[in-house]
Amino acid sequence: MPVLDREPSKDLGGGDGLSKLPLPSLKDTLDMYLRCMKHLLTEEQFNKTQNIVKQFGAPGGVGERLQSKLEERRKNKANWVYDYWLNDMYLNNRLALPVNSSPAMVFPQQNFRAPIDSLRFAAHLISGVLEYKTLLDGRALPVDYARGQLAGTPLCMEQYYRLFTSYRLPGPERDTLVAQESSVMPEPEHIIVACKNQFFVLDVVINFRRLNERDLLTQLEKIVKMADSEEEQLPPIGLLTSDGRTEWAESRSVLMRESTNRDSLDMIERCLCLVCLDDASGPELSDTTRAMLMLHGGGVAKNGGNRWYDKPMQFVVGADGCCGVVCEHSPFEGIVLVQCTEYLLKYMIGSPSKLVRAASVSELPAPRRLRWKCTPEIHKLLACSADKLQRLVRNLDMNVHKFYDYGKEFIKKQKMSPDAYIQVALQLAYYRCHGRPVSTYESASIRRFQEGRVDNIRSATPEALAFVKAMTDGMLSTSDTEKMEMLRGAITAQTKYTILAITGMAIDNHLLGLREIAHELKIEKPEIFKDEAYLISNQFILSTSQVPTTVEMFCCYGPVVPNGYGACYNPQSDHILFSVSSFHESPQTCSAEFVKCLVQGLLDMRDLCNKCNCGSNPTEQRKEKHTQTETNWQNKMQRPSDLTKNPQTLPQVLVKTADQTTVEAQTQTSSQGEAQGLKNGSKS
């Protein structure tokens, strides 16, 4: 039997009144594991796995012993899987953070007519950050409630409180997520501003008073002047943070030998966040280009050194209007990034820029440039990091596509969950591109529970495979009625697994817990975890996430395996935005080809629904069809007329009305708190 709490328990760190994460029964997890894997393995592989699983789950066997140890662990911890999950998903992963781990939110293209406009935008944004930080410090953020499947449950809010107080410290074998505990007399708060690969300390509280927007603008203008001073320029130390985690840990220990460097590192590690003032990156600023620039800064020749990737929040303000946020993913999931970012953009629209001269702190002290002492060894390490970042820049194959033919309203009219429908479309796209199903990751929020983060929805279900085969190999031999039945079967299976996952009853966290407790007990690694099927099950060739927004922006990230795809989608009422990534170095993948198959699949699924559900009338959908893979849609965006009076200082943002924010499935990031995790599945 699964272990559940009958009564919600109080918890110190993970949210008052929330239940503890349940522990599924060993039998349920092992049965589901076999069901999830059977169609992804050869007959020979599956027979071998079936025997191994049977042996692992036998009465009195090793599985039962490990399960009882997990039950003990559950009694003693607020969340039995949290530490295991955090290490496995993030901190043990040795890959570089940009592209591989850190997702980005891309803002609408801003129209900065003069250099001062980008600084006004940055000052306004910082004001919003300070306003949001005040809410967090007062624990005044309203509680999120689950939406969509099993709506109405309060959700754990702990992740929000790590937004501006944590730091990912690199380690030789495992990183550390450092959370700063606020002291009784906190030091003056500061932000680090990166400009031309130099780092500056911007104190946001001076003489116990928070700087207003005019003061912030004055300080940013001083920073830009200081950064332009040729004789003072220092090497782009930020490049070191873009390297593999073990390499960066080694470089950091070299930097730490000098007291000057120790002081600079300390200031960066304790700051609220980074604001990166980027140089213009070139003429073409399509959605795809902006997504790539947000993920890696364009490498050493552009703004790749103007970053510090260990910090959770880096706000990027480009002189050419290319703006967004890059986030270090280990402290929080996607919902937190979306909620915080939407708060900031709405704040910037709702509270006009307050660039008044009144009540300024007289004679503000100049911001301080961080100094670095660089030995020849550090210069060599910098050159090495720059080369690796350049390779990552060349390797990323990104394709941002806005699918205009229909959106979630059409899907809801078919009485289907939009998230489940899009997941089935992604399965169809992969099958049409590659002729086989693969392990697929879709994050599901488990924030209903104390300290809950995510578990995995395994979207490559046997039912989805039956449907995609009928739509591909059996296009002519299967009737439309049969295909429609298969589509409904695939969507039902996807929805059922989603509910299992959000209620803490999916298999990935449980298998991880069994594996890790065996390691803790110094038991020889059980055969189930050495089996080829387990390795295949954790190679997430398709890493997907729903990241819906109510403000016109989109999320993107890289694949989690060399031969995989990252597929992030933002369903709106009449269109769906997709960000698809892969690596050029893989001969098997191509983002443009995947998008082409995805678009065709979505059109085929719509046609099938229209043929079989005559009651649904698609004429309400847009007649104009855009199926090209590159649509520069931000330019078409209409702004409310009252916002156009002062185009220099107002962000170009479109806010949707409340009735457009409902999210049906509790996967990636619902607009108010259910679906989680921008980019997960980075199993190393």
TrEMBL record:
Annotated SUPFAM superfamilies: CoA-dependent acyltransferases
Record field: catalytic activity: choline + acetyl-CoA = acetylcholine + CoA
Composition bias, Polar residues: 629-651, 658-684
UniProt keywords, alphabetically: Acyltransferase, Neurotransmitter biosynthesis, Transferase
GO MF annotation: an example: choline O-acetyltransferase activity
Location of region: Disordered: 618-684
Free-text function comment from the UniProt entry: Catalyzes the reversible synthesis of acetylcholine (ACh) from acetyl CoA and choline at cholinergic synapses.
Family: Belongs to the carnitine/choline acetyltransferase family.
Full protein name: Choline O-acetyltransferase
Organism, scientific name: Lates calcarifer
